[in-house]
Design a protein that fits this description.
By secondary structure, the protein is an alpha/beta fold. The protein contains 11 helices and 21 strands.
């Protein structure tokens, strides 16, 4: 039987980052992951799975010494963002207005995961179990036992589920989840833009959902995320490349000149979810195992990383990591923030997905008005960038 202080189920972006943070604080960590990270080839095309990383998430990576490894592979900063509605409304954000070097970075998920795993392999207090899957869960007063499919058992004082929206740990623990099917799919692919992306993130609100073009390191390439009602998404996925390019051009417009899709497309269903409990006896959930939101705000992985950072704050060296008080404090903080974000996204979806004439006028006027109110724009960007003062220590400047 393997002994650890904490066992983490799931070694993706959030789980691996959490493992690094806990091991840095000399907790003995066992990490269970079904698949090893994808290899990274700098000459390969960008992967379709990318994340928009906020300043708060960047600080977490910097404090854990992961950021240089990501930069050595591939990251793409952006310093402006333009959001507009199908009508006349538009709002622009610029890093210079915030005295910031950029508004964030577009990074492949595989790059984030690989950088974290490279660091894990350097840390003495980490036990990697990969490939491995959880099979059983037993909890006692003073410990939790995780049985793996191969028959091995890990005993720890806390188990953390970072195993995604279909969390097996959450299922074994009997924690229910509230789900909301958005009736949409997200289409992702790479595109070549004729005029260059100007290191700007572009997002247009359409009646069927938002279309975002995210700038990549090559100034003439972007990653797109097109959220569309399921029937339309299925129709778009069935088109050949030429027909899809035509529909994409019509939807986005001509701001970047001609758009040419590169390589394959993929689509995934969009849904929001929230676990009924983030914690129970000697167990905690983080990231998508605890919550998922619409990609409209691009905050999914950033929320998960803040989960990890907040949990690290709660676990004090010399104290029981599975203690009830620490876990309840984590749940109160993170659940309330997630609920606020989910409600905000629901409001945006309703406002920008509704074709009632009064709402169309309201959102167009609202975007234009907000663009002329610098304090409002700065407040919005401080929230999105993660420049608040109440962040976990790992996400703040010089506080790790």
């Amino acid at each position: 039987m393997t002994q650890a202080d904490i066992v983490i189920i799931g070694g993706g972006m959030v789980g691996a980052t959490l493992a690094c943070a806990l091991a840095e604080r000399h907790w003995r960590v066992a990490l269970v992951e079904a698949r090893p990270p994808q290899p990274f080839d700098p000459d390969s095309p960008w992967d379709l799975r990318v994340s928009a990383i906020s300043r708060a998430s960047q600080r977490i990576f910097e404090h854990l010494q992961l950021w240089p490894a990501m930069q050595a592979m591939r990251v793409s900063p952006y310093d402006r963002m333009v959001v507009w509605e199908e009508g006349a409304g538009e709002i622009r954000f610029d890093a210079a207005d915030m005295a910031e070097p950029d508004l964030g970075h577009i990074i492949e998920n595989r790059v984030i995961q690989r950088a974290a795993w490279q660091r894990l392999e350097q840390l003495d207090d980490v036990l990697l179990h990969c490939p491995a899957r959880i099979a059983t869960l037993e909890t006692a007063d003073e410990a939790v036992r995780v049985g793996l499919e191969g028959g091995e058992t890990i005993e720890a004082r806390l188990v953390v589920g970072a195993d995604g929206a279909r969390s097996r740990l959450r299922e074994l623990a009997g924690i229910g989840v509230s789900r909301q099917d958005y009736g949409q799919k997200g289409i992702v692919c790479l595109v070549e833009v004729e005029r260059g992306h100007e290191y700007t993130a572009w997002q247009r609100f359409l009646p069927s959902g938002p279309l975002a073009l995210l700038p990549l390191a090559d100034t003439r390439q972007c990653s797109i995320v097109w959220s569309a009602d399921t029937p339309l998404a299925d129709e778009l996925m069935a088109l050949d490349d030429a027909a899809f390019a035509e529909r994409l051009q019509a939807a986005f417009g001509t701001r970047l000149g001609a758009l040419r899709p590169l390589g394959r497309r993929a689509a995934f269903p969009l849904a929001g979810s929230q676990a009924q409990h983030y914690v129970q006896h000697r167990l905690a959930l983080v990231g998508d195992a605890a919550h998922t939101i619409h990609p409209l705000a691009g905050q999914g992985v950033n929320l998960g990383l803040l989960d990890a950072a907040d949990l690290v704050d709660r676990l004090r060296p010399g104290h029981d990591p599975g203690g009830r008080a620490a876990l309840r404090a984590y749940e109160r903080t993170r659940r309330s923030e997630d609920v606020l974000m989910m409600r905000a996204m629901e409001g945006f979806r309703y406002l920008f997905g509704n074709e009632l004439a009064p709402l169309r006028l309201l959102r167009g006027a609202g975007l234009s008005l907000a663009d002329r109110l610098p304090p409002l724009k700065q407040a919005f960007m401080r929230q999105a960038l993660g420049l608040r003062r109440d962040l976990p220590a790992l996400a703040r400047v010089g506080c790790a």
